[in-house]
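Hi there, hope your week has been kind to you so far. Please have a think about how the structure follows from the sequence. I've dropped the whole record in just underneath, so have a look:

_____
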Amino acid sequence: MEEQKNSSRRQFIGNAAALGAIGVAGFSGILSSCSSGYKPVDLATFLDKAPDGEPLRAGVIGCGGRGTGAAINFLNAGKDLTIHALADVFQDRIDRCRTQLKEKKGVEVDDANCFTGFDAFKRLLEADVNYIILATPPYFRPEHFQACVEARKNVFMEKPVAVDPGGARMIIAASKQAEAAGLSVVTGTQRRHARDYTSVYNQVKAGAIGDIVSANVYWNMGKLWHRNPQPGWTEMEGMLRDWVNWTWLSGDHIVEQHIHNIDVANWFAGKHPQEAVGVGSRLRRVSGDCYDNFSVDFVYDDKVHVHSMCRQINDCENNVSELVRGTKGYTNCSSTVWDTDGTIKFEFPYPIDDEGKPDRRGIMSPYDQEHIDLITIIRNGGQIVEAEETANTNLTAIMGRQAAYTGKKVTWDELMASDMKLGPDKIEMGPVDMEYMVPSAGTAPIE
């Protein structure tokens, strides 16, 4: 397998000696893959807390559930960390975030550092902050990330990073600017910062399963959530509060949620697919214009096929997992590697609970770990920039979405040249000036 590398990762590896045992193996691409022989390699090692260093004052842009959760993960990561400023379109989200930060972490954010409105992110970037958490609906991510890079801020950026090809390309361009400016960026693809996943990844890169020949990735679950319009809400407010169900805001759930599993396929393969064919439909969703199921065949440049399936429908078979097969074995990516005959080659050593069973919850939460890793790199003068790699996975998910929406084969080259732009021309409270309908592949039968 040929693995893609970028300058930020090479720079990070070059600084590894100064960083101590942070688990450099967890950041993809430092072991040669497809070696002729295999013996288990060392587990990925990580710090439980970021080292002491310069105080970091975080600004949170997007104060909903994920933004508030990421703020708490940041505060869990070490010492001399504080949430200094908050920005959101809605005041009630800021109020709820402030309440949770005070109740759970004893952190209070001054009124003067709380900003509302569509331009709130600009005012936050002018505050005394040096670490930004981006957690708005994904539609806004490219503009916000570009502004953070121009303001010379280190960034934790939630996935997905865009909803259309133009937005993803904007992320890639800003990522290169961040690299040149010496900034660090970690994204919310937290499996890459999970101790079990990265340990299995290391085994695969050391040749445990040989050459990858196929993979299956799944996120099948029940209905997520929705918000019904309320009296007094404008059409824009209704969409923003129900954002996960609107493609222009979320990218649809193959992009917004299933990106995690697709990212594992790209990460382990060390590349992205070249084309996709897929199907999908809307059967049960009660708001918005998204599908509630997708099934996509991704084809990589060596004709390796990855089957991707995701669903958000109640009372169906659930499955959130990955399976990668190779010429010499297979793995679930999260804990275990098997030989072709089913013999276990490697198993992650989880702590044992009181009943004598492996306890997956006994290891560091990857949601905390990704902030520990980013803060450690910042404080030790290293650099990591994950944005471009995540944008490529984001584009992979968009390619699958468009293949299902259209019923056509969609290629990577077509995607990179696409001028598709989702969303209204103007972002303002009031009516939403755009047409939207549930996509339908193919044509009706000829009568």
Observations:
- The longest strand covers residues 212-221.
- Residues 387-406 form the longest helix (20 residues).
- The chain has 15 helices and 15 strands.
- The chain has a mean pLDDT of 92.
